[in-house]
Amino acid sequence: MKNKKHDVHKYKKVDLAVSKDESYLVFRCMLNCSHYIREDLIVGKESICWGCETPFVVRTKYKVKPKCDNCINRREATNVEYKKAEDALRAAGVIK
């Protein structure tokens, strides 16, 4: 089966180390592709977001799966809203 050629990769961080004592972290394309890139070279590359599936330019090193700023900000906003709701339920005496 031939690899599908595409312009933008969808990266995921993987460890290619041979032993458990060492670590060799790279980002691997997950779109039926053989493309790998070292962790220190990922910043500035175009990738597909794991949250919304849109292309974006990677600005920082990620833990595992790169996400665009919109998806990161949306998640942070959701966490803040959840904390506000939890505080309101505590104030009303519904939860302790």
Please outline the helices and strands.
Layout: E1 11-15, E2 25-29, E3 36-38, E4 46-48, E5 55-57, H1 69-92
Antiparallel strand pairs: 1-2, 2-3, 4-5
Low-pLDDT sequence parts: none
Structural class: alpha+beta
Q: What oligomeric state best describes the polypeptide chains here?
A: single chain
What count of helical segments does DSSP give?
A: 1
> What is the overall pLDDT average?
82
Please give the largest β-sheet: 3 strands, antiparallel
SS strand fraction:
15-25%
Give the N-to-C terminal Cα separation. Answer: 58 Å
The gyration radius over C-alpha positions equals 19 Å
Report helical residue fraction. 25-40%
Number of E-type strands: 5
Q: Give the helices and strands as they follow along the chain.
A: EEEEEH
Looking across the biggest beta sheet, what order are the strands in?
1-2-3
Describe the global form.
Answer: elongated
